[in-house]
Amino acid sequence: MKRLLSLALVLGITTAYAEELTNPLTPEPEHIAAGKKLYNSTGCIACHGNNARGAVGPDLTDDEWLRKPTDQMIFNTIRNGRSGTAMSGFAGDITDEQIWQIITWIKDENRKRKEPKK
Amino acid sequence: MKAVQKLHSRRLWLAVAGAVGTGLLAPTIALADPVHTPVTDEMLLNASRESSNWLMAGRDYAGTRYSPLAKINTRNVKRLVPAYSFSFGVQDAQNTTPIVVDGVMYVTSSHAKIFAIDAATGKQLWAFSHPLPENIGKLMCCDVGNRGAAVYGDKVYFATPDSHVIALDRATGAKVWDVVVGDYTKAQTMTVAPLVVKGKVVVGMSGAEYPTRLWIDALDSETGAQVWRRYTIPGPGEPGFDTWGDTDPEIWKYGGGSTWITGSYDPQLDTLYWSTGNPNPDWDGAGRKGDNLYTNSTLALNPDNGEIKFHYQYTPWDVWDFDGVNETILANINGRKVWLHGDRNGFLYNIDRTDGSFVWAKEISKVNWATGFTPEGRPIIDESKVPTYEHKAMNVCPASEGGKWWNPMSYHPVAKTVVVPSREICVDILAGKSDRVEGKYNLGIAEADWIKGHGQLVAFDATTGEKTWTVQAPSPFTSGVLTTGGGLVFAGTPEGEFKAFDIKTGEELWSFQTGSGIVGSPIAYTVDGTQYVAIPSGWGGWTGWATWGGKGGSPHLKDNRKGGTLFVFKLFDVK
């Protein structure tokens, strides 16, 4: 019984960890504005270009992604980088909260691009 | 001719040695393993006449990137076909110039790799990979690239993004020494192809988009020990220290002045010419009022101790990121010993290399930040093109990539023609205040909007400075240039086309699609009498100019495909 319980506990923890990370922020204008500012000041702009429309790093506002664009993937990529590429991890430069702000802005740019042109 | 014969006999193959050995031993020796004859000072001094070889990044100490080889020429270049291709197995900027010694090619790639390959077949002889810190990308403004290796004695040398200079055994690829010359966490990074002069390995630094103070180092070729260091920004008490204004007493420690393009050497004058890049912050000149010596200059150095003999400064108080780091080609023109330098500020310069005096400067592309020159060769600035915090300078020509960007030009000493890879792109800039934090960008830019333009390849008559022809293209020519004794000019494009032109007319004679954008430099060499032309392909580098701002300078290059491959060509043989 005890063993079963601890097994359940372990399993419980495992499932908790396996749960996908999702953006805790809602797309409030202040998060979007903060995200854009951070995108520029952290130097993302140097590789991903103006408004993340792509330069030597890929466009982050279209539907073409190298990895499926889940919140978790984008968060991990920005936090930890991609080994063997020019994409560095920014964990030491910005907080997790700031990473989510950048993601909020990126997602907003994606959404805006999909809006029908008036 | 004699030199050519000597070279062929030097290319002895171990297979021959194996054949005279015992029957038992012979099969264990890999067939056709080359004998690696030491590269001597004499060979380097006569590199321009080593017609089968390409012994240093600029091919010779004058940096001409001219090969006298003429087997591939204007009449038969249409028959040029791939002999082989060689994948580097990595993406990003392939900025390299391969080196060839007696049938063996040493070629670096992005992400700190170097390969030795049989230059005739593409067979890999060895590969060496230096493991990089995970987060190196954000400490390099302009990609995790490398510009090439250097050879001397039995070693091959190359620099890594995290500021190691490494010597390998040419025959085996085994590491002989490995020294750290800078602190990459402060963005003191390396992409330079070293130059070996008088037994010293001379290297320069990247990193002036970040607050740091950069230098040129000379290392002992046997041990890697530092022989001298020349900081490009004078410290307190040194001449030029007072050219940084009086508002910021710390600025000299952070003023940039990178040195990432390989210099040239004049053995008669025993002078090393090495150019320097932009001051930091790039676009914000408010805190550094003055000429900002020795940024945007070419330094004439004593190669024994690094002392500055004299200098010429292309852009005093640079507020456009014009970055005078580009190469100097040593030439003798109209009886005068000069250097030629194509600058990102839009001018092609002719400077006396005995004393640094100004001979002439000619526009490569449209220039409007300067309206002319004083007789001493100081540019006369148009104040409306100076960006400040309040004033957005509109339509500044050229944008910071030139003119001529870093990709090396070539000088054909027989045709007396300089061929410059170029672009016509302008920019609107508003300066801004950014924070000075080591290891973080400090660009001093609030707004920058590149204005859509086009590319061009421009040929000049070096005796007069007149343009002889211009080839227009949709995108900037982003490769280095090769000129040859066969009357050819080779250059590549961001679209991946590797092209040959007639040096007399600029007429396009041949083109090959390499599959990714070209930001490396072509070379020519022979193995056993067959001439080859090689070009590294693989898009990368700082490409913000293409897409940044409203539209960007070449918006069609957005998402341009990457992929690093070396292509080698020879004439199709009808057999």
Q: Tell me the domain tally of chain B.
A: 1
Number of domains of chain A: 1
Can you count the beta strands of chain A?
0
Number of strands of chain B: 38
Q: Calculate the mean pLDDT score of chain B and round it.
A: 94
Name given to the CATH homologous superfamily of chain B: Quinoprotein alcohol dehydrogenase-like superfamily
Number of helices of chain B: 4
Biggest sheet overview of chain B = 5 strands, mixed
In the CATH hierarchy, the architecture of chain A is Orthogonal Bundle
Separation, N- and C-terminal Cα atoms of chain A: 65 Å
Helical percentage of chain B: under 10%
Task: Determine and state the CATH class of chain B.
Answer: Mainly Beta
Mean pLDDT of chain A: 85
Please state the CA-atom Rg of chain B, rounded to the nearest Å. Answer: 23 Å
Strand order of the largest sheet of chain B: 1-32-33-34-35
Describe this structure in words.
The complex is a heterodimer of chains A (118) and B (575). Chain A has 118 residues and is an all-alpha fold. Chain A has a single domain, classed as Cytochrome c-like domain (Cytochrome Bc1 Complex, Chain D, domain 2). Helices cover 54% and strands 0% of the residues of chain A. Chain A contains five helices and no strands. In chain A, α4 crosses α5 (96-114). Chain A is globular and about 40 Å long. Mean pLDDT of chain A is 85; it is low at 7-16. Chain B is globular and about 70 Å long. Chain B has a five-stranded mixed beta sheet, with no helix packed on it. In chain B, strands 27, 28, 29, 30 and 31 form a five-stranded antiparallel beta sheet that branches. Chain B has a four-stranded antiparallel beta sheet with strand order 2-38-37-36, with no helix packed on it. Chain B is built from four helices and 38 strands. By secondary structure, chain B is mainly beta. Chain B has a single domain (3-571), classed as 8 Propeller (Methanol Dehydrogenase, Chain A), CATH 2.140.10.10. Residues 1-9 and 11-31 of chain B have low confidence and may be disordered. In chain B, β7 and β8 (155-159) form a beta hairpin. Chain B starts with a helix and ends with a strand.
